[in-house]
Design a protein that fits this description.
Blueprint: H1 5-24, E1 29-33, H2 40-49, H3 63-67, H4 69-72, E2 78-85, H5 93-97, E3 104-105, H6 114-134, H7 137-142, E4 148-151, H8 159-165, E5 170-171, E6 177-178, E7 186-193, H9 213-217, E8 223-225, E9 228-229, H10 235-241, E10 257-259, H11 263-266, H12 293-297, H13 301-307, H14 318-331, H15 336-343, H16 351-365
Parallel strand pairs: 3-10
Antiparallel strand pairs: 1-2, 2-7, 4-7, 5-6, 8-9
Helix pairs in contact: 1-6, 14-16
Length: about 375
């Protein structure tokens, strides 16, 4: 499509307005890119060919759509990529990790599920963009039918690649998107749309330098190279994505991490610039930021469903929840309280729970845990 000078000026002004609207809606940053993802699709295919995805076979589904936004949503010409900070204030992450009787939950999962909130804000932004088209006759004439689709970790989308292409940050050695402004404690969201907006300059400089703090901090040494993660060793994968038995050799290395793992972010120097979220929905619920392992292990299924309603934790399911907690209790200091909680579950009807409870009990019988 050939646009005249007035329409081009209108798109340029709209891009500026979009960023202002994004700020008003609570997003910390906003970038715009086109559908060219550069080298990132080739990297993903190489990573999958190496088998690093483990049981996440869904990553093979719709691979071409994941690598080409215009295939996922026909007519897409531009992608708006946005970030929203999620780090709650006063999370005491290091303190909780250092206390093996406490349960460590990844900081992003302490509050309400981010999908609903971010998707709603993205929808509001798309609606406002359409309204601005109504206010510009030249643009509305060129684009009589505005089409958009919003995503936040909910479809085959290369979110970090799009964010890099949109200038939001670089992909660090820990595979996280990192921005000099705020580290990496944020969610990403995207809007695919059929407007040829002027794109921002891609973030091309890698600011990790010689630092490898994330690799050193990883409890299971899941990084096989800079920017290459073997998900099969990652605690986030083991506690969330993996169903069934956790490899026995990795269990002692998991410590008290029962849902996700933040170590590669906690020890990243760039996260000293991270800002606490202003979104109350991301603040801790049900004392999950300070809960004892035994207390969570004693939840029955009804309590689990009630206390994880509207939470990302619901995704792991009750059986995996008990499995993860059994491992953490096996890594905890032995006590009558811990042993009593484990023994109460040793005849659990699910074989996965029984297996991990038995492992934890045998670990305590063998002597004090030494691997956390």
């Amino acid at each position: 499509m050939i646009l005249d000078s007035e329409q081009q000026a209108g798109l340029k002004a709209l891009a500026v307005t979009i960023k202002e609207l994004a700020t008003d809606l609570g997003f910390a940053d906003c970038g715009i890119t086109d559908v060219d993802l550069g080298e990132h699709p080739a990297y993903l295919k190489k990573w999958l060919d190496a088998g690093y995805e483990g049981d996440m076979q869904w990553m093979h589904n719709h691979l071409e759509k994941r690598c080409n936004p215009a295939l996922l949503e026909p007519g897409t010409l531009s992608v708006i990529t946005l970030r929203m900070d999620y780090l709650p204030p006063e999370t005491q992450a290091i303190k909780i990790l250092a206390n093996p009787e406490k349960a460590y939950v990844s900081r992003y999962a302490l509050g309400r599920d981010y999908h609903k909130l971010i998707r709603k804000r993205l929808g509001q932004l798309a609606k406002k963009i359409n309204q601005h088209l109504d206010d510009n006759a030249a643009l509305r004439a060129a684009f009589p039918e505005f089409r958009s689709r919003a995503f936040t970790d909910s479809a085959p989308v290369l979110e970090r690649a799009l964010a890099l292409q949109g200038g939001l940050g670089w992909i660090g050695k820990n595979c996280m998107l990192i921005t000099p402004k705020a580290g990496s404690w944020f969610f990403l969201g995207e809007i695919y749309l059929n407007l040829p907006l002027p794109k921002d300059k891609a973030f091309v400089k890698d600011h990790c330098g010689q630092c490898s703090a994330c690799h050193t901090a990883c409890p299971t040494q899941a990084f096989v190279a800079d920017g290459v993660l073997d998900a099969k060793r990652c605690i986030s994968y083991l506690t969330i994505e993996l169903k069934g038995s956790i490899p026995e050799e990795l269990r002692p290395l998991m410590g008290n991490r029962i849902f996700g793992c933040d170590d590669c972010q906690l020890f990243c120097p760039w996260n000293r610039f991270a800002k606490s979220t202003q979104e109350k929905d991301f603040h801790p619920r049900h004392q999950l930021d300070t809960a004892d392992l035994v207390d969570l292990f004693n939840w029955d299924e009804a309590s689990f469903l009630k206390n994880t309603e509207g939470s990302p934790i619901r995704r792991t399911g009750y059986i995996s929840w008990l499995r993860n907690l059994a491992v953490a209790l096996g890594n905890a200091p032995p006590s009558e309280t811990v042993l009593s909680a484990l023994k109460a579950r040793q005849t659990h009807p699910d074989p996965v729970v029984r297996e991990h409870v038995l492992w934890a009990l045998q670990r305590h019988q063998a002597g004090p845990a030494k691997d956390h």
